[in-house]
Write a structure and sequence with these properties.
Shape: elongated
Number of strands: 27
Distance between the termini: 61 Å
Radius of gyration: 37 Å
Helix content: 40-55%
Mean pLDDT: 83
Strand content: 25-35%
Number of helices: 22
CATH class of the largest domain: Alpha Beta
CATH topology of the largest domain: Alpha-Beta Plaits
CATH architecture of the largest domain: 2-Layer Sandwich
Strand order of the largest sheet: 3-2-1-6-5-4
Structural class: alpha+beta
Number of domains: 4
CATH superfamily of the largest domain: Reverse transcriptase/Diguanylate cyclase domain
C-alpha cells in the first residue's frame, strides 16, 4: 500500500476559550523544568523504549513542552501538533504508523525532523475535565503497543494529571483564602463583639481625627458619652502640650514611614481632669493601599504615672536634701556621717580611680562590712564583678561630668534585692574629682510594677496570657529561631460550635465553657508551652523546640481530642470541635510575628473549610526560605491524611497502609525537613 502524502490540522475544541483560561491560570507555560514532570517522561522513555517522551501543553498557537526527553526544541506550532489532535481523544490517541494515517502522513514532523512514525498520547485534564495537553511517547519507526503498556502509559499520565489538578486546587484555595480574608475584615458583628467587650478603650477614627465609633471603656476614661465623642476629634480632648507629638506620628503613618505607633499622652476629661493614657494607633488601608481610618487602643495609666511621679519627686527631694547637707557639712565628716547613716539609702563618695572615700552605715547593713573598712577599697570588690560590669558605663559618664541614674541593679552582696542608683559628679574647679552615689532599694516598687504588668498580660476571663503576652513571647521565639537555631511552632485554634452554645445557653454559659477549654488546653500542653486566648473563641499555642510535622500532628491530635470530649455546663452537656492551623518556624529561619500569625490563621481557616475537626500545618523551611510549601494535615476521629504538592511524587517510593476504618495513612521515608 502506497503511503498518503497529506495532513490535517486538528480542529479547535468547543470549550477552547475556557480551556486556555484554565491553562494560563496554572502558571505552567514558559516555566523552568521541574523534577516532578521530568521523572515521568524519563520513566515513559525507559518503559516504552522510545527515543522521545513529552509532557506537552497546547495553547492557542503552539504546543509547549513542560518536560521533554529526546528533543532539543521546547515547542512546535499548533497546526502541526499531534497533541492538538489528542485534545479530542477520550483516553489514548494511538498512531502506529503515521505514513498510513491521513491526518499525519504529510505532516512536516513526519516528513522532516524528528521523522515521527509512531505516536501515543494520553490527554491531561483539569479538575473540570478540560484537556490541557498530553503525556506522549514518540518513535521514529512504526510499532504496536500492547494493552499492558497502554495501561501503564495511562497510569503515568494520571500521575501528571494529578499534579496539575493539585496545582489548580492550590490556586483555587488561594483565591478562597483571599475572599475569606476580605470577609473577615468586613465582618462587623465579630469586630463589634471584640470592640465593645475588651477592658481597654478602643476607637475608630477617621483621617481628620474625628471619632467614628468608640467603645464603653473609652467613655469611662474620658467621661464623655459615645454620642458626645462621635461629634468630637481626638485633637479636642488631647492636652495641648501633647498634641504636636501625636500629630507628627499621625503624619508618619499617613506617609507610610511607620505602620503603627505607641505614645503616652494626656486626655482632658469632660470634668476638666487630666488622665494619662498609653495610646496605640494603627492605620487601616484598603486593598489598593489607600488610607481608610485609624484604629486606636487606649490604656488608662494615670495611677502608674502618679506612682512614677511620686517616686521621682521622692528621689529628687531625697537627692536635694542629701546634696544640701553634703554641701553644708563638707568640713564636718562626723556630722555628714550622722545624717547619711540615718537615711535608708546607700550613700558613698568615690574618687576618680573608683575607690571609696566615704560610705554610710547602710553599707554595713547591706554588705556586712564596716564603712571605715571600705575607704580606699575598689567598688568592684564590694558590689561584685557582674554588677560592676553593668555599672561601669554609668560610672564613666559620671566621671565625664554627667549626672546619671541607673536602675535594676543587683549587687552580689545583696542577692534578691533590686536597686536604683544616682551618680552625681563632684566638680573640683574645671575637673571631676569623683562622684557621689545614692542607691535606693526599689525591690518592692519593682514587685508592684511586675504585678501590674502581669495583670495587663493576662486574659481576665480565662486567666490565660493574652494577645500582648503572646506578642512579647513570639518576638523572643522568632529571635531565638533566627539567632540560636531554636525551632518553634504556632498553633492557631478556633472553636467549632461555640457560637451555637453561646446563643442557646447564654453568655454566662459561654464564659464557663471558655474557662473549661482554657483548663483543658493547659492540661494537654507541655509545661513550658505558652497557651493564650487571642480573642473570643480563638486560642493560640506557642510551642518551643518543635522541629517536625509529626510532632505538630501529635500535639494537634491531643488538642482536638481534648476539646472533642463533652463539656459539663451543670444542667446541660456541650460538645465542641476545634480547627487548628499550624505554622512552623525552623531554626535559622527569619520571619516576623505578623507573617507567622498570618500563616497559622490561614491554615486554621483551611482546616475549617474542610468541614471536620482538624488541623493544617504550614512549615517554614530553613533552606531556600523564599519557597514555603504548604503541608495540609487533616485530622478526624478515623485517621490522618497528608497532602503536600511539593513532595507528592516522593510518595510513590513510600509505604502505605490502611487503618481499621479504611482511611489511608501515608508516610515518606525520604522526606526530611
Amino acid at each position: 500500500m502506497q503511503p498518503v502524502h497529506e495532513w490535517h490540522a486538528a480542529p479547535l475544541p468547543a470549550d477552547e476559550a475556557k480551556r486556555l483560561q484554565v491553562l494560563r491560570s496554572l502558571d505552567l507555560l514558559d516555566t523552568a523544568r521541574e523534577e516532578v514532570f521530568d521523572r515521568v517522561t524519563r520513566v515513559v522513555a525507559e518503559l516504552l523504549q522510545v527515543p522521545i517522551a513529552l509532557v506537552s501543553l497546547v495553547d492557542e498557537h503552539r504546543q509547549w513542552f513542560k518536560s521533554r526527553v529526546g528533543l532539543d526544541v521546547c515547542e512546535t506550532a499548533r497546526d502541526v501538533s499531534f497533541c492538538a489532535h489528542a485534545l479530542h481523544s477520550g483516553r489514548l490517541l494511538l498512531v502506529e504508523d503515521t505514513q498510513h494515517d491521513v491526518r499525519f502522513a504529510g505532516n512536516p514532523l513526519v516528513t522532516g525532523a524528528p521523522h515521527i512514525r509512531f505516536y501515543a498520547g494520553v490527554p491531561l485534564r483539569s479538575s473540570h475535565g478540560l484537556v490541557l495537553g498530553t503525556l506522549c511517547a514518540i518513535d521514529t519507526k512504526p510499532r504496536t503497543l500492547s494493552a499492558s503498556l497502554q495501561a501503564a502509559l495511562c497510569d503515568l499520565a494520571a500521575t501528571v494529571e494529578r499534579e496539575i489538578v493539585q496545582r489548580e486546587a492550590a490556586r483555587e484555595t488561594r483565591e478562597l483564602q483571599e475572599a475569606d480574608r476580605r470577609k473577615l475584615r468586613l465582618s462587623e458583628s465579630r469586630f463589634h463583639t471584640i470592640f465593645q467587650q475588651t477592658p481597654t478603650g478602643k476607637a475608630i477614627v477617621d483621617l481628620n481625627g474625628r471619632f467614628v465609633e468608640v467603645n464603653p471603656k473609652l467613655c469611662d476614661i474620658t467621661g464623655y458619652s459615645a454620642d458626645e465623642l462621635v461629634t468630637m476629634t481626638f485633637q479636642q480632648i488631647t492636652e495641648e502640650a501633647d498634641l504636636s507629638v501625636d500629630l507628627q506620628l499621625v503624619a508618619e503613618l499617613l506617609d507610610g514611614a511607620r505602620k503603627t505607633y505607641t505614645l503616652e499622652k494626656r486626655y482632658r476629661r469632660r470634668d476638666g481632669e487630666l488622665v494619662w493614657i498609653e495610646l496605640s494607633v494603627a492605620l487601616i488601608r484598603d486593598d489598593r493601599g489607600a488610607p481608610l481610618h485609624f484604629v486606636s487602643v487606649m490604656h488608662d495609666i494615670t495611677s502608674r504615672k502618679h506612682s512614677e511621679q511620686m517616686l521621682r519627686d521622692y528621689r529628687q527631694e531625697l537627692e536635694r536634701r542629701v546634696l544640701e547637707r553634703t554641701c553644708e557639712l563638707t568640713s564636718s565628716r562626723v556630722a555628714l556621717q550622722t545624717i547619711t547613716d540615718n537615711l535608708p539609702v546607700l550613700i558613698a563618695h568615690v574618687d576618680a580611680d573608683l575607690r571609696y572615700r566615704f560610705n554610710n552605715q547602710v553599707y554595713r547593713e547591706v554588705f556586712g562590712i564596716e564603712p571605715a573598712a571600705l575607704r580606699g577599697k575598689r567598688i568592684r570588690d564590694t558590689i561584685g564583678a557582674t554588677a560592676f560590669g553593668r555599672c561601669l558605663p554609668f560610672f564613666r559618664r559620671a566621671l565625664a561630668g554627667e549626672r546619671v541614674t541607673h536602675e535594676d541593679i543587683v549587687y552580689e552582696g545583696a542577692p534578691g534585692r533590686i536597686w536604683n542608683a544616682t551618680y552625681i559628679p563632684e566638680f573640683q574647679r574645671d575637673d571631676v574629682g569623683g562622684f557621689y552615689i545614692m542607691s535606693q532599694d526599689i525591690t518592692e516598687t519593682k514587685r508592684r510594677e511586675n504585678q501590674m504588668r502581669s495583670e495587663v498580660m493576662l486574659d481576665a476571663l480565662t486567666g490565660l496570657p493574652n494577645r500582648r503576652a503572646l506578642a512579647e513571647q513570639l518576638a523572643l521565639c522568632i529571635e531565638a529561631a533566627r539567632d540560636d537555631d531554636v525551632p518553634f511552632a504556632l498553633f492557631f485554634m478556633d472553636l467549632d460550635g461555640f457560637k451555637s452554645v453561646n446563643d442557646q445557653h447564654g453568655h454566662d454559659a459561654g464564659d464557663a465553657l471558655l474557662r473549661q477549654v482554657a483548663a483543658r488546653l493547659k492540661k494537654t500542653t507541655r509545661a513550658g508551652d505558652l497557651v493564650c486566648r487571642l480573642a473570643g473563641d480563638e486560642f493560640v499555642l506557642l510551642a518551643r523546640g518543635i522541629s517536625s510535622t509529626s510532632a505538630c500532628s501529635r500535639i494537634a491530635q491531643d488538642i482536638c481530642r481534648a476539646i472533642g470530649r463533652p463539656f459539663e455546663l451543670g444542667y446541660a452537656e456541650a460538645r465542641l470541635g476545634t480547627s487548628v492551623g499550624i505554622a512552623m518556624c525552623a531554626g535559622g529561619f527569619d520571619t516576623s510575628a505578623d507573617a507567622i500569625l498570618g500563616d497559622a490563621d490561614r491554615a486554621m481557616y483551611e482546616a475549617k473549610r474542610r468541614g471536620a475537626t482538624g488541623f493544617v500545618s504550614r512549615p517554614c523551611w530553613r533552606t531556600r526560605p523564599r519557597i514555603r510549601p504548604t503541608i495540609a494535615v487533616k485530622f478526624s476521629r478515623c485517621g490522618i491524611e497528608v497532602r503536600c504538592p511539593k513532595i507528592h511524587a516522593a510518595w510513590q517510593h513510600g509505604a502505605g497502609c490502611t487503618s481499621e476504618d479504611g482511611l489511608s495513612h501515608h508516610e515518606s521515608p525520604r522526606l526530611t525537613h
